[in-house]
Amino acid sequence: MNQEHIRNFCIIAHIDHGKSTLADRLLELTDTVQKRDMKAQLLDKMDLEREKGITIKLAPVRMQYKEYELNLIDTPGHVDFSYEVSRSLQACEGALLVVDASQGIQAQTLANVYLAMAADLHIIPILNKIDLPAADIERVGAEIVSLLGCKFEDILQISAKTGKGVDAVLERIVTEVPPPKSQLIGPSYNETRALIFDSYYDDYRGVILYLRVFDGAIAKNSEIKMLATNAKGIALEVGSLRPNMTAGADLKAGEIGYIVTNLKSTREAKVGDTVTLAAKPASQALPGYKNVQPFVYAGFFPESNEFYQDLKDAVEKLSLSDSALQFEPENSPVLGFGVRIGFLGLLHMDIIRERLEREYDLDLVVTNPSTDYQVSMTNGEELDIKSASSLPEPAQITEIREPWIKGEIIVPKDYVGPVIQLISSKRGLQTNLSYVEDRAVVAFEAPLANLLTDFYDQLKSITSGYGSFNYELDNYRTEDLVRLDFYVAGEMVGALSIMVHRSEAQRLGRDTVEKLKEVIPRQNFQVALQAAIGGKFIAREDISAYRKDVTTGLYGGDVSRKKKVLAKQAKGKKRMKRFGKVDIPAEAFTVMLKRD
After folding, report:
1. Within 10 A of 258 (CB to CB), how many other CB atoms are there?
2. How far apart are CA 341 and CA 359, in angstroms?
């Protein structure tokens, strides 16, 4: 195919603004998919994607329109996958910006627009869902105009659900999106370079790469090499997705397609890496590759210890197709054997948990999510700890650094006050406040650990559901952090330990022992629940014992008989307390996640 007739574009939008539905209509209009094979959210292959209404794994598809070849990349719309989105944008020359006419611009819309501008893409603004009674075309159109600096007439007004106005989108793609250009000039002109924007592991075929060829060509059976990981493999099959895999002879410059390789894990071919030919490797990689590091960690334990091996096998299988997933074995005296897994964010964690439970039929106990901390020791050693229980003794520590994020919240301007209050309650600092029409954009910095559990829920409730939130990792800062431990009947429960700022320890300790009191069942003896920093207890609650009425068999007589029986019972309870073990239910490990 002549490069002048190729158009590579992607769709960017906030969650639920109609991205996948627009992709469906484009597939129908270009006759890529027959009417009888059509179903809603065709590019979302996972059941989870359909249920949650979000795109988790991005999918490319090739369409023919007139004499043009259109390559569409459907990108994930969630903040956790922003690196993958940035790589997809790098593989395109144009972007369709879809905004819901009833909801207006949201945080993720803004974040993705900045990414598209940074990648120097031609942006086509689209106003979707204009058929809804709640659609406010004038107001939302004005927001788009002030964001992009375009004219109101440039905005396409469509309804992706009914198909109204979608043919105009195809015309705009063909006339406005520039064709792909080669990036190499001079002596390195005939080198081959392709960008991996997604990869996954297929049980039967090995690792499959989705890529965009920038220079040269990759033919079937040629030996390929990844520049970042230095892994080598063979291109067993090359082709394009229409939307099913269609094999071809080769992939040429400007084209988007797939390669089936003989690699064993996606860790050898990571998103953002450059693919070149092993016989004649490229002298420099394509820009923008970075090794994505997880920054949210949680312990996953099976309900019963006999399923530990099943859990380990399942996590290993998932990690083959998700290179961002990192895990290590963990052992807890209460929960037994499990694995500690690192994630890109809370949505990523939620998806992995659901997949383990559904696809591998596991019942899991998940501990409270935490982030990682950098610890400087007195002997000059630097540690990176992923759970509070592995923190060394306070006497050996000189400083602890925790990750901070830069965030942006978009809300209607009536809610600015409560949002700023919420940020400051999480030890956050508001850095900027600006307005896009009648919406406020609140920029802030905050410690990541304080936003992990229920920040998003609280934001939604104080803004009546209108607030949206986007963030990126900033840096690690030295803070006055302590480890808060919890004791049940005098025994420390390591899986409940958390890292907190000293100023918040008292309140959090008190709240947590109160919540534990609700979930831990009563015993035959009194159980003390305590929170402590080091050797100092800062909060306590008692679960009172069951009291059996041992005096029922006594009718009348001297009161000393009654006292004797009660004294005997008290003695027995004391002994029981000495040997007693408290059975801690699984809910106790997620008390931090419980809303008040």
Report:
1. 23
2. 18
Average pLDDT over the chain, rounded to whole? 84
**Token representation of residue 307:** 């399923």
**Euclidean distance between the first and final Cα of the chain, in Å?**
60
Crossing angle for the helix pair 416-425 and 455-462, nearest 10 degrees?
160
pLDDT of 188: 47
Q: Is the whole-model pTM more than 0.70?
A: yes
**Please, how many CA atoms are within 13 Å of residue 583, restricted to the half-sphere of its CB?**
5
pLDDT above 50 for 186: no
Query: What pLDDT shows up at residue 37?
Result: 64
Exposure string of 488-512, with b = 16+ CB inside 10 Å and e = fewer, is bbeeebbbbbbbbbeeebeebbebb
- 223-252: average pLDDT: 88
CA 420 to chain CA mean position, Å:
24
Nearest to 174 by CA among 325, 60, 36, 66: 66
Q: How far apart are CA 222 and CA 233, in angstroms?
A: 9
**What digits encode the pLDDT tens for the residues 390-422?**
888 888 999 999 999 998 888 888 899 999 999
Q: Are 257 and 240 in contact (CB under 8 A)?
A: yes
At 542, the pLDDT band (50, 70, 90 cuts) reads very high
Q: CATH number of the domain at 187-277, out of 2.60.40.10, 3.30.70.20, 1.10.3470.10, 2.40.30.10?
A: 2.40.30.10
How many C-beta atoms surround the C-beta of residue 163 within 10 A? 15
CA dist list (Å): 216 to 191, 196, 213, 230, 278: 6, 15, 7, 19, 13
Say if CB 68 and CB 58 are below 8 A apart: no
Q: Give percent helix, percent strand, percent coil of the chain, each to the nearest 5.
A: 30, 35, 35
Question: In a 10 Å sphere around its CB, with 0-12 CB exposed, 13-18 middle and 19+ buried, how is residue 34 labelled?
Answer: exposed
CATH topology of domain 483-593: Alpha-Beta Plaits (3.30.70)
Residue 145 has pLDDT above 60, yes or no: yes
Task: Record the tokens describing residue 66, joined without a space.
Answer: 């007139």
For the domain spanning 3-176, the CATH number is 3.40.50.300
Domain ranges of the chain: 3-176, 187-277, 296-369, 374-479, 483-593
Residue 74 main-chain phi, psi, to 5 deg: -90, 115
Closest by Cα among 138, 84, 60, 144 to 109: 144
Quick one: average pLDDT of 473-481? Answer: 90
Question: Quick one: which of 374, 267, 385, 369 has its CA closest to 326?
Answer: 267
Chain center to CA of 281: 34
Q: Which of 197, 218, 170 is nearest to 69 (CA)?
A: 170
